[in-house]
Amino acid sequence: MEAKDSLKGLFWRSDFYGAYTEGGMSSMHNGILNGLLKLGHKAVFASSGRMKLPEGIPFYFIPHSKLFWNYPEILNLPYNRKVTKELIKIIDKEKPDFLYQHHADFNYSGTLLKKKLGMPFFLQCESVQFWIKEKWGKIYFKKLLRDIEEIQWHQADAIFVISEEVKKHMIYYGADGNKIYVNSSSVNPDVFHPNIDGSEIRKKYDLEGKYVVGFTGTFAPWHGVEILAKAVKLITEKIPNSIVLFVGDGMLRPMIEDILKSDNIEHKAIITGMQPFELMPKFIAACDVVVSPCVQTDDSTEFFNSPIKLFEYLGMGKPIIASKVGQQSYVIDNEINGLHCEQKSPEDLAEAVIKLYKNPDLSQKISLQARKDAVEKYNWINNSKRIIDVYQKMFGTKS
Amino acid sequence: MDLLLIINGRIEKLVSVHNLNINNLEVVKIDEKDLAKPKKILKILKSKKFNNVYFACIENDLQRFHFFMFLYSLLSFRWKASIIDELGNKKIFSIIKFFLLNLPMFVIETILSFFVIVYYKIKIPILKWKLKIH
Question: What is the interface pTM, i.e. ipTM, of the complex?
Answer without folding.
Answer: 0.89
